From TrEMBL:
Pfam family, one: DegT_DnrJ_EryC1
Species whose genome carries this gene: Ruegeria marisflavi
InterPro entries, A to Z: DegT/StrS_aminotransferase (IPR000653), PyrdxlP-dep_Trfase (IPR015424), PyrdxlP-dep_Trfase_major (IPR015421), PyrdxlP-dep_Trfase_small (IPR015422)
UniProt superkingdom: Bacteria
Similarity section: Belongs to the DegT/DnrJ/EryC1 family.
The keyword Chaperone is annotated on this UniProt entry: no
The protein's name: DegT/DnrJ/EryC1/StrS family aminotransferase
Presence of keyword Transferase: yes
Length: 397
């Protein structure tokens, strides 16, 4: 009998009981706004920022309404102006070029390698085109961060890290988001902690931190932050920085704090599932597994593989056959974006030139979520289905 998978690729685990109790406490006292505090109260949002700063080793942290808002805030805080060019990945999700466009800047796309990371040779060639790089660690893949920072430091490029998919990851032991000037994280439902929506921004730069706090809408209440610079820094920037309100509230912060404390445990669980699927896919004819560098500590909340140089109709047939057996795969080579599968040439608001080497890689990228609601046996079954269906299409040529 043909095996099928009946689980959901979008169902997350329940919010932990500790987080539910913390949320109920906020609802009972009613002080959801981060600056609405009782006498002597520190506030859930300020505590979240303090704890995440400590967790990542950053001096400063700001909690905001979404990961995309964190990205746009970082761009404004480092001084990006309308008309400026900003380097970014050709392989990323729409909120990254969207953040660049939202401040009136122009994305300059850098290629992608078969490792699904930014093409560092292409970055070096384009280093003179912009003074800021918004680096997307797309789908949790970290490039050689040592070489990237060498290129950027030599060219005077400020690096903003999009860590939506790498909260809990590291390169050579340095937490993702801590090599560039700013690290931005997402707390959206499908990320590594879940508050529905939400974002976090970390930096060691006091002026960037102060600008970010003012941009988020602090209304001169910056002294109520626990992971922000001193008042003297705000004095320098407070009348020159606009309020573009996008604060996180105490309800979401209360939900997130217990989840962040459990992050390392969750990372281990994701990686156990990722490794089971990866092992099951190895050796599949026509399928390329993405090898992870030794220096990378990754979080396997999704998995990608390549069907390199396959004809489009064959890729579609393999995806259709997997879907018929309950396995949902996304393809970044589809002519029209489906869900989140848009790419650099999909975003008509941003000029782009053809990138043949990157187009070849993008045309072969297959992507799949790995939620923690999957059992290890589910992962083995999913790998068997993909292996069988991809192998069958490959064999039939």
């Amino acid at each position: 009998m043909t095996e099928t998978f009946s689980g959901s690729f979008t169902q997350q685990e329940p919010i932990p009981d500790e987080a539910i109790e913390a949320a109920l406490a906020v609802l009972r006292h009613g002080r959801l706004h981060r600056y609405n505090l009782a006498k002597g109260e520190l506030g859930e949002t300020a505590l979240l920022e303090q704890e995440f700063a400590a967790q990542t080793g950053a001096r400063y942290c700001l909690a905001v309404a979404s990961g995309g808002y964190a990205l746009a805030t970082a761009l404004r805080a480092v001084g990006v102006k309308p008309g400026d060019a900003v380097l970014t990945n050709a392989f990323t999700l729409a909120p990254v070029p969207g953040a660049i466009a939202s401040v009136g800047a122009r994305p300059v796309f850098v290629g992608v390698t078969e490792s699904l990371t930014i093409d560092l040779d292409d970055l070096a060639a384009k280093a003179g085109a912009a003074r800021v790089l918004m680096l997307s660690h797309m789908r949790g893949h970290l490039c050689d961060m040592d070489r990237l920072m060498q290129i950027c430091d030599a060219a005077g490029i400020t690096v903003i890290e999009d860590c939506a998919h790498t909260m809990g990851a590291a390169w050579n032991g340095v937490a993702s988001g801590r090599q560039g000037a700013v690290g931005c994280y997402s707390c959206q439902t499908y990320k590594h902690v879940n508050s529905g929506e939400g974002g976090l921004l970390v930096t060691d730069d006091e002026e960037i931190a102060a600008r970010a706090v003012m941009l988020s809408g602090s209304y001169m209440l910056y002294e109520r932050h626990l992971a922000a610079p001193g008042p003297e820094v705000f004095e320098r920037i407070k009348y020159h920085t606009p309020n573009i309100s996008g604060r996180m509230d105490n309800l979401r912060a209360a939900i997130l704090r217990p989840q962040l404390r459990a992050l390392s445990t969750q990372v281990a669980r994701w990686n156990e599932r990722y490794q089971r699927i990866e092992a099951g896919l190895r050796g599949t004819p026509g399928l390329t597994v993405i090898e992870r560098p030794e220096a990378e500590t990754y979080v396997g909340s999704s998995i990608q593989f390549l069907l390199l140089d396959w004809a489009a109709d064959k890729v579609q047939e393999a995806l259709r056959r997997c879907a018929a057996r309950g396995v949902e795969l996304k393809w970044f080579g589809t002519p029209e974006p489906v869900g989140f599968t848009s790419r650099y040439d999909s975003w008509r608001y941003a000029e782009s030139a053809p990138m043949p080497a990157s187009d070849r890689v993008l045309a072969g990228i297959i992507d799949m979520r790995v939620p923690l609601t999957f059992s290890l046996e589910d992962c083995d079954l999913i790998a068997r289905i993909i292996r069988a269906e991809v192998g069958a299409v490959w064999q039939n040529g």
